């Protein structure tokens, strides 16, 4: 979803410094790439030797430990043959990041491609790539501190809900928007209760192996070739070590319905498309047959509830809106989406169980 926020930009001096320090070829043109966080500007640099993506990290993604971990993950994924954009190092084979004036810059080889088209074929390809990522990273021990914590049973949820309320109320007041604060507070409380209930319904049992998860896998972070194949997985700023079923369930939530268009939540889809969900599940287990998905299918719809709530509440806590949509409209849609998942939880679980065969014995 696009954002109505003003996007951060680069100064010409910043670009010149980065090009010099990374020893990039002569830049013929530079094009803004208005995707992802509005706080993290991106430029496509066209050169005689190919195209590069310049990214300045957002402040909340610039902590030293987080940067070192994320780059260690990307370098290891590249080494293990996972389809990710190649990180470019600074001059003389130096670090894969440039630090200056409190900012962190990264340069990647640019992967041209197309966005997710909503097809079952591409849903299966994306899931297969995610599963292959998990399988490839099994057993890898990061050489730097490893972030943990996820959207499941997060102890911070109540505080995030309170912050979402106050931030949304403040935003409405600044914009002279009408807001029934009492009704909005009650709606948020019902969402928080739904999150708690979902947590009680989740029994991950034998968690199996843990591995590096993307932890923010949605259609915007998958690039496809003209022929519909998965060209690259991008944006590992949220990567962490956790049970791969969390990535699987969130991916099913994100890729399992026809993508919405426009700023009206009334037009956004609520239900999961069974064809997309089946292809997602079969694609994932083909890429990662060791993951205990089918055995824990009963947990999947409740993980999806948690993931849907976490995605929206974190966005509202940060800025009082999700893209251009203000908090009250987001929560109104979210409650309908939660209700669908709760009512159809058995149906979703059965679908996953049918499409995910038992793990191969090790």
List the helices and strands and how they pair.
Blueprint: H1 12-21, E1 27-32, E2 42-47, E3 50-56, H2 64-79, E4 98-100, E5 103-109, H3 120-136, H4 157-174, H5 181-200, E6 211-213, E7 222-224, E8 230-233, E9 240-242, H6 244-255, H7 274-287, H8 300-319, E10 321-322, E11 325-326, H9 327-343, H10 345-355
Antiparallel strand pairs: 1-2, 2-3, 3-5, 4-5, 6-9, 7-8, 10-11
Helix pairs in contact: 3-6, 3-7, 4-5, 4-8, 5-8, 5-9, 6-7, 6-8, 8-9
Explain this structure.
By secondary structure, the chain is α+β, with helices and mostly antiparallel strands. It has two domains: 12-109, Phosphorylase Kinase, domain 1, CATH 3.30.200.20; 120-355, Aminoglycoside 3'-phosphotransferase, Chain: A, domain 2 (Alpha-Beta Complex). It has ten helices and eleven strands. β4 (98-100) and β5 form a beta hairpin. The model has no long low-confidence stretch (mean pLDDT 92).
For the largest beta-sheet, the strand count, sense and barrel status come to:
5 strands, antiparallel
CATH architecture of the largest domain: Alpha-Beta Complex
The CATH superfamily of the largest domain is known as Aminoglycoside phosphotransferase (APH), C-terminal lobe
Strand residue percentage: 5-15%
Q: CATH fold name of the largest domain, please?
A: Aminoglycoside 3'-phosphotransferase, Chain: A, domain 2
- The overall average pLDDT, rounded, is 92
The number of distinct helices, counting runs of at least 4 residues, comes to 10
Top CATH class of the largest domain: Alpha Beta
Low-confidence stretches: none
Number of domains: 2
């Amino acid at each position: 979803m696009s954002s109505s926020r003003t996007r951060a930009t680069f100064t010409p001096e910043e670009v010149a410094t980065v090009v010099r320090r990374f020893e990039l070829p002569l830049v013929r043109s530079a094009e803004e790439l208005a995707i992802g966080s509005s706080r993290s500007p991106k430029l496509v640099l066209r050169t005689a030797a190919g195209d590069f993506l310049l990214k300045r990290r957002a402040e909340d993604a610039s902590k030293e430990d987080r940067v070192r971990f994320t780059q260690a993950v990307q370098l290891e994924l590249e080494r293990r043959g996972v389809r990710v954009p190649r990180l470019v190092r600074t001059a003389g084979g130096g670090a894969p990041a440039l630090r200056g004036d409190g900012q962190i810059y990264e340069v990647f080889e640019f992967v041209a491609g197309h966005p997710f088209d909503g097809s079952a074929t591409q849903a299966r390809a994306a899931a297969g790539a995610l599963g292959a990522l998990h399988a490839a990273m099994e057993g890898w021990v990061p050489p730097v501190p490893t972030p943990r914590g996820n959207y499941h049973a997060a102890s911070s949820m109540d505080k995030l809900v309170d912050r979402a309320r106050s931030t949304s109320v403040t935003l409405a007041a600044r914009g002279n928007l009408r807001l029934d604060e009492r009704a909005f507070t009650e709606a948020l409380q019902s969402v928080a209760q739904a999150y708690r209930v979902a947590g009680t319904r989740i029994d991950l049992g034998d968690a199996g192996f843990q591995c590096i998860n993307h932890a923010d896998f949605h259609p915007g972070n998958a690039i496809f070739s003209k022929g519909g194949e998965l060209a690259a997985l991008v944006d590992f700023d949220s990567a962490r070590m956790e049970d791969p079923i969390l990535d699987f369930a969130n991916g099913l939530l994100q890729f399992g319905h026809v993508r919405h268009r426009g700023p009206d939540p009334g037009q956004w889809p609520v239900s999961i498309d069974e064809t997309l969900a089946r292809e997602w599940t079969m694609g994932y287990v083909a890429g990662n047959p060791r993951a205990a998905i089918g055995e824990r299918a009963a947990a999947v719809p409740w993980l999806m509830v948690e993931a849907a709530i976490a995605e929206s509440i974190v966005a509202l806590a940060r800025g009082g809106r999700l893209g251009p949509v203000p908090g009250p409209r987001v929560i109104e849609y979210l409650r309908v989406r939660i209700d669908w998942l709760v009512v159809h939880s058995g149906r979703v679980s059965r679908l996953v169980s049918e499409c995910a065969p038992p793990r191969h014995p090790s």
